Amino acid sequence: MMKLLITGFEPFGEHHTNPSQVLIKTLPDAYLGITLVKAILPVHAALAPAQMVKLLETHKPDGVIAFGLAAGRAKVSLERVALNWLDFSIPDNAGETIQHKLICEDGPAAYFSTLPLDRMLTALNSAGIPAEASLSAGAYLCNQVFYTLMDTLAQHKTAIPAGFVHLPALPEQAANSKQPIPSIGLEKILAAAFLMIEILGSPANT
Ligand code: PCA
Fold this sequence. Notes:
single chain; alpha/beta; Aminopeptidase; 6 helices; 9 strands; 33% helix; binds pyroglutamic acid
């Protein structure tokens, strides 16, 4: 049976909720015959990468989709690039603000997502879910976990589809935000996750 690792993040900064955490809590344990290993990562620069490495080693998944929140974005953002760079504009949940620092001293500058992004994009947009490809996952925890994920797979020469997806805020976050921010409802976020999982489970996942 195929096994996918799906991760989200806990709330951080000014956000009292995180759509990626809500997604992880809502997803079933299996979908279309695919086992879903679900985990919520801490917004903690020291702990989150270590947890991602441990999850990969423990579960040896056949594919990985990591999710996080990018409040202010209007569309589900399929990240193309993980950058070897940390530059936090707000502290993590442990109070650390890491700036101008490599994630991995001797690692490559960047890794590309190995998810079938173009196929996913077409499927999401055809299903009426606003989605786009994004060239930067930022320089905070999401990028750090994304880079660690791709670096760990590269180190182990594990050629599985893996990557990162940023989610817009939920409507309840937009409702309580001082600034006007775009949002997407949980039903659309769930539908997006199911479509991406289905694509990874289908044979031509290129
Ligand atoms: N978003 C943050 C970290 C956790 C999350 O959900 C980010 O974009 O880096």
